[in-house]
Amino acid sequence: MKLIDLDLIHLKSLTELWNREIGRDFPMKEELLKQNSFNDENVLAEGSKIATDQQGNILGFVVSKKVKEGSALVPGGSGWIQVLLVDSRWRDQGVGTALLDAAESALKNAGTETVHLGGDPWHYFPGIPKTYIGVKEWFRAKGYEEIDSVSDLLCDLTKIKSTNPEGEPSIKVLSPNEKEEFVAFLHLRFPGRWEYEAIEYFNKGGTGREYAIMKLHGNIIGFIRINDTNSSIIGPNVAWSALLDGKNGGIGPLAIAESERGNGYGLELVLGGLRILKERGASKAVIDWTEKIDFYRKTGAEIWKSYNPFKKVLE
Q: Is the domain of 80 the same as that of 207?
């Protein structure tokens, strides 16, 4: 066995490996793997490797990430292992351990203090899928600890009213001429990941159609991300859309300015986002990566997939 650098020439083979192993639960497309595991500037090349045998056959791969200096993401000493996948025919033969050791070593050398499994920028999963019991036990044996439980929810949009109510506060799709106002709002109210994701969205050609904003007296007080299968960027809440019949979409993250909380605006904004998706022809929507199950159940959504985030402090 040897470890080689992650390279786009292997995109097709890595996609095929993914779909053989976990495609039934999480069907991968080459476009999505390229977007999240190759094109993300946060991929740590030194800690992202492919394991092969002497004939060049792929046995598994790992992708690790560390935020670049000066990024708006500002995660401190954190790093991520986005994915570690081994061909089931080669498990229990040291392949996964070799890949994990390479990723952890590179992350430590890059100044990482804590490694998280999933939850990375341009992520697939917020943690290990809850039903993957053996995977969780394997990582526990490697020194990782479970820290939470989060879920993706699924909402039936046929049960959502089609039109947004008029009046204050208003809910509308972000227009291109509101870009600067929106980014300024995020920088002031929600600096960090959500600001970073919005900046990346616009840098990659986003026009605003993937965000809905709530305004009160002319000022932005909240936002919700809305993705659908026509979005140029594949969001995590539409990543597994092949599992759902018909046209679908996704919402999240959601945020309301702290000064305006407690007025029911959060639920109004969620319903507004779901209505926009319904108007675009979607019949289902995924609400991804949340622990606020009871809140989102007010829309009729129910748990679809669940995950357990893990972390490890490097020594």
A: no
